[in-house]
Amino acid sequence: MALRSASDPGDTPFDGRLLSPVIGLEIRGLRLDGPLTKAVVAGLKAAFLRHHVLVIRGQDLTPEQQIAFAEAMGEPDIYPFVAGIDGYPVITPVIKEPEETQNFGGVWHTDTAYLKCPPAATMLLAREIPPTGGDTLFASQVAAYDALSDGMKALLAPLRGLNTSAKANQIRTNVSEKRKCESLEAEHPVVRTHPETGAKALYVNTGHTVKFDGMTEAESAPLLEFLFAHQVQPDFTCRVRWEQGTLVIWDNRASQHFPLNDYQGYRREMHRITLKGDAPF
Ligand code: OGA
Ligand code: MN
Questions:
Q1: I want to staple 208 with a disulfide (CB 3.0 to 4.6 A). Which of 5, 150, 163, 233 is the partner?
Q2: Beta carbons within 8 Å of 241's beta carbon, 6+ residues apart
Q3: Which domains does the chain have, with CATH numbers?
Q4: pLDDT (mean) for 127-139
């Protein structure tokens, strides 16, 4: 069955507004603090697959309610590098203090691509946000793949990329002076097939990918640099402006994200839950 294009919010049991023609749906007037009907969960899952990013406003949830919503959408996972908030190991705090200068994940990336089974989805709930700044950009990797020529698609089809957490640490994707971890590595196809929609998406990223399998870093660099620039072009993106209580859930199999670090002197706190994913194929 062909999926309808993202540039159509579709029939949803809630009020949705497109953030851009290719990625992102903003949803208002939905309450996630109680049990959800089957129709709403099915509508949210369909919208998530079509738009890759759901921006659900007005969700001042308790940790229990956030976990319950995560469980309605998938299977919560544990983040390997940062400990959870008190009493809730699946909720990772993503905090930037006013005096800190680096932000968490401050480059274009898809989450933890150095794992054998990276998370299908990541959910962030905004607890405290700066008065302005601290937006997050998202880029559709399905749109980025679709925009390539047939020649480039054919060239990329057999390639696999090596993803390492060491690259992320170097450029401080995972800011955590307190925890020194060994680096993690995984090799994944450069073009992955979405396990639920069948759509093809680019699956290299600036934060983690260092080379192609069977090639040196120097040999890989020119094509990787092309892909890193291509895959985040403005036409493939949307921009999320957070409000306190905004809950965003994104599809790591079909998108990348980039949190802006333009709010020096202000505090930002997000509560993060990842949902388990399959090995990319
Ligand atoms: C993440 C991440 C983005 C943000 O939690 O994986 O990249 O906006 N955060 O804080
Ligand atoms: Mn991230």
A1: 163
A2: 135
A3: 15-275 (3.60.130.10)
A4: 98
